Write the structure tokens for this entry.
Amino acid sequence: MTSKTNKEMLKNDISSRMKQEEHYVQVPPVEKKSSGKALNIVISVTIAIIVLAGILYPLVNLF
């Protein structure tokens, strides 16, 4: 029986301390991060241009 009361007292003590110290702790705001969709599109277009240039340049030099 004393074990249960000790556990309950400990639980109550911890919860009361947490409530007392809540105002000392500052939770950082959640930062919204952009998905980077625009950057992915720019990189994709750049790679596509480089690949097309690599294919077309030798073809143009043949004629």
About this structure: Residues 37-62 form the longest helix (26 residues). The radius of gyration is 32 Å.
